[in-house]
Design brief:
Largest sheet: 2 strands, antiparallel
Shape: elongated
Helix content: over 70%
Oligomer: single chain
Distance between the termini: 41 Å
Number of helices: 12
Order of helices and strands: HHHEEHHHHHHHHH
Radius of gyration: 22 Å
Structural class: mainly alpha
């Protein structure tokens, strides 16, 4: 494993230095192994490991390429890890969501364009006044996704998407069992939108924190 780790670090160094850029094809295996001072076997294992992390793209019969290295692609490994979490760890996921989404709301309040704000309002209006719990949760995912996108940070948006998708089941459960959960969620969403329309950074941050903390607190009592 130490030899494979060395090979991984050398390939990573080539990417960080710019010797290999997104979309570049790696040199042929014997040439790259000689260039890096590695055995072909250790290089092969490193390529396999980096392909699992979506850093490299192995195309049968064509060669190995550096991936786009876009955050959503690289964070797929995180999504896999989150899928392995047990239900009792969902509270920890909500704690992380609170931190990330309050920051995203604050950034979005600064940066959201009139067009993005209109789209956010349209997302809520499309839901109607008496949605099903399932429709509400689907709308909730879109709502928070639009805020994360408006924050203007692709890494932050990808992290929020991964966490939101993996806490959806808890939100459905809350909607089905907690009295007035649907009405409260809609009201909280609209309050967040108004804070963003006013470009009130601290209000947006606080409202997003209260919104997600409320779900986490209900879940803590329900577990």
């Amino acid at each position: 494993m130490a030899v494979t780790d060395e090979a991984i670090e050398k390939i990573k160094a080539m990417i960080l230095s710019g010797a290999l850029k997104p979309g570049d094809r790696l040199p042929k295996e014997p040439d790259l192994a000689a260039e890096l001072g590695l055995s072909r076997n250790s290089l092969r294992e490193a390529v396999k490991a980096l392909s699992l992390l979506n850093v490299l793209d192995v195309r049968q019969g064509d060669g190995t390429y550096v991936s786009s290295l876009e955050p959503p692609l690289l964070l797929e490994a995180l999504a896999f890890i989150l899928d392995l979490h047990r239900d009792e760890s969902v509270l920890e996921l909500f704690q992380v969501r609170t931190i990330l989404e309050s920051a995203a709301a604050a950034l979005a309040a600064q940066r959201m364009t009139d067009e993005q704000l209109a789209e956010l309002r349209e997302t809520l209006d499309r839901l109607g006044e008496n949605p099903t719990v399932e429709a509400l949760v689907a709308n909730d995912l879109e709502f928070h996704g639009r805020i994360a996108a408006a924050a203007g940070n692709s890494v932050l948006a990808s992290l929020i998407e991964s966490l939101s998708n993996r806490t959806a089941r808890a939100r459905v459960w809350r909607g089905l069992t907690q009295e007035d959960a649907v009405r409260r969620t809609i009201a909280e969403h609209r309050a967040i939108v108004e804070a963003m329309a006013a470009h009130d950074v601290e209000a947006a941050r606080a409202l997003a924190t209260v919104h997600i903390t409320g779900v986490a607190e209900w879940l803590r009592q329900a577990l």
